[in-house]
Write a structure and sequence with these properties.
- This protein is α+β, with helices and mostly antiparallel strands.
- 41% of the residues lie in helices and 14% in strands.
- It starts with 5 loop residues before the first helix and ends in a 22-residue tail after the last strand.
- The structure holds flavin-adenine dinucleotide (FAD).
- Flavin-adenine dinucleotide (FAD) binds next to strand 5, strand 7 and helix 17.
Length: 540
């Protein structure tokens, strides 16, 4: 079949029967007609249609080696520098459509599948059948142009113990039954972005496992159809408030719903099991297969588009209200320019230093990509801050589109800019509003900060206690889970109108003590060049 059209994507979505919980409702059919999912589905449909558009087709597709049909270029196995450039061009094409605000376009997970499908040497260390299965699954995804999401980390119940220790191991998704024809998984994983509109869920190794027999139930990599029986998604409330693209220019199109993933005895047939019972191979899943490198190549390419968007927006605002001559404004514009150019340079440098894997796949230089992915989460937090600084109260002087007809003269006179009419200025500032102070923009900042990083908590060794870092002053430390729950937790709960005590019939996770200290200095970044002392730093 090869590349799908938007209409084909939407038709399949409507035919699926997932279990989605959102805003007090269970939605299981006709997703494209549901207000919570419709806009996002239409946006993704546009991405599929772009593959057929003569203006983008060459950048977004290539000929399938097995069928000759056009398939998405993110499935291209890179063997030459031109292949890497082609992959980048495809990602850039989709990223420029959304200005980098869509983090889960299909090329993100396709990158992982592409690398995994070629990693024969890696899979040979375990059972080569896993390598054969994931290659077959990659071809299935490529030829059917599937949209996959993934879910990695354990629930955030108690980060002072590892996921496999929460509630005696009964919370995190785990194998509860092994059958001749497959496995059964129960438990939960924390998050899956775009889950409601995806075709498939990839449940890949989440956390650094200890390699002990107790970790065996958590050692797996599988794929499951999004409407498999027993799979439930608890979706967050949408950040699009129902406005049109004039009033909510970003949220109305690009709100990728995130969801908690619950597995209630979900059966996974053998052909969809790509790793089982090998914690050390699960721990090396991203680094040793090249999946981390190709995924990061996609991520860094996407984030260049986002940096360019903020630079463009800030420049427009500065010109529109005549602040572009002020020194501190120019300084911020220079910061944005620097970040665009650094991002571009890092992608190209990673490609220029690419080297073949043991399986002959040309992988972009990991150290360069790793620098990029450790750099961007921090610098991107400045983008909305700069927009707020440039706009100031202009972000509040914002009548809606409907008001353009009602207050035409006032808007034309009082809301004009130095170089824009009143209605033009409102459109520009609506964009700034959605990119800097709305819930949508807050979620974007959170996404860039966290989606590609791991806390040490996910992979801490069994029994290891959290220790306060030496460089964190005692005043900056807060009581750990035990302390909060026993000492101040009830007071907070009452203030928030929450029950002061856990409901009696809900099993509670144990672990951590009143003495436990949490390091508030931030998240551990991924290690450099495999030199990390903690294996958790090597996970993606
Ligand atoms: C918008 C968004 C979308 C996402 N989408 C996906 C997705 O599609 N699929 C997916 O698998 N994941 C997704 N993630 C999850 C992402 O992988 C995690 O946010 C990331 O791994 C951090 O884990 P956490 O959120 O559980 O934070 P936690 O680990 O719970 O950390 C919470 C805070 O505690 C601190 N902390 C925790 N443990 C320690 C420790 N041991 N030492 C010091 N500090 C510590 C952290 O620094 C952090 O400040 C998404 C996240 C976001 C925000």
């Amino acid at each position: 079949m090869g590349i799908r059209t938007g209409a084909q994507f939407l038709a399949k979505l409507d035919a699926m029967r997932p279990h989605l919980v959102i805003d007090g409702e269970v939605v299981s059919e006709n997703l494209t007609r549901h207000p919570a999912f419709r806009q996002l589905a239409l946006t993704y449909a546009k991405l599929f249609d772009m593959q057929h558009d003569p203006a983008h087709r060459d950048a977004l597709t290539y000929e399938s080696p097995t069928t000759g049909d056009l398939v998405n270029a993110s499935f291209l196995v890179p063997r030459t520098p031109q292949d890497l450039a082609r992959r980048r061009a495809a990602t850039a094409t989709w990223s420029e459509y959304s200005n980098g605000f869509l983090g889960r376009t299909a090329d993100y997970m396709n990158a992982a599948l592409t690398a995994l499908s070629t990693a024969k040497t890696f899979f040979a260390q375990g059972d080569p059948v896993f390598g054969e299965r994931i290659e077959a699954y990659y071809e299935f995804a490529r030829e059917n142009d599937l949209l996959a999401t993934h879910t990695l980390i354990p629930p955030q119940v108690n980060r002072s113990v590892s996921g496999s220790e929460q509630l005696g191991g009964q919370l995190t998704a785990r194998i509860v039954e092994e059958r001749a024809d497959g496995i059964v998984i129960s438990g939960a994983r924390m998050l899956a972005t775009v889950a409601p509109i995806a075709d498939e869920l990839l449940v890949f190794p989440s956390t650094v496992l200890r390699g002990t027999p107790e970790d065996a139930p958590y050692s797996f990599a599988v794929a499951v159809a999004n409407d498999a029986p027993g799979l439930r998604y608890l979706c967050r409330t949408g950040l699009h408030n129902g406005g049109n693209t004039h009033d909510e220019p970003l949220a109305a199109r690009f709100d990728e719903i995130d969801a908690v993933v619950v597995f209630d005895e979900v059966f996974i047939p053998n052909e969809r099991i790509f790793m089982l019972g090998r914690p050390e191979l699960c721990n090396a899943w991203y680094t040793d297969t090249g999946a981390g490198a190709l995924m990061t190549h996609q991520v860094v390419t996407r984030t260049v588009a986002k940096s360019e968007f903020y630079l463009g927006l800030a420049s427009e605002i500065a010109g529109a209200i005549g602040i572009d001559g002020f020194a501190h404004i120019q300084e911020d514009l220079a910061e944005l320019i620097r970040n665009v150019e650094i991002g571009k340079a890092l992608v190209v440098a990673a490609e220029a230093q690419a080297a073949p894997s043991v399986d002959g796949v040309l992988l972009p230089h990991w150290e360069t990509l790793n620098a990029a992915r450790n750099w961007y989460p921090k610098i991107s937090q400045r983008f909305p801050e700069i927009i707020r600084k440039f706009c100031a109260s202009g972000l509040m002087a914002l009548p809606g589109e409907a008001d353009l007809e009602v207050a035409t003269e006032d808007i034309a006179k009082y809301l004009q800019g130095k170089s824009l009419t009143g209605s033009e200025r409102i459109r520009l500032f609506k964009l700034a509003y959605d990119a800097s102070i709305t819930g949508f923009s807050g979620r974007q900042a959170l996404y860039e900060y966290f989606f590609f990083r791991r806390s040490r908590a996910h992979g801490r060794s069994h029994g290891e206690q959290l220790r306060p870092r030496a460089d964190v002053p005692a005043s900056a430390r807060i009581p750990g889970p035990g302390g909060l729950r026993n000492h101040r937790g009830n007071a907070f709960a009452q203030d928030a109108g929450l029950p002061a005590h856990p409901a009696p019939d809900i099993p509670r996770a144990r672990g951590g003590t009143a003495e436990t200290q949490i390091d508030v200095s931030g998240v551990t970044m991924m290690g450099y060049h495999g030199q990390s002392t903690l294996p958790s730093e090597r996970s993606v």
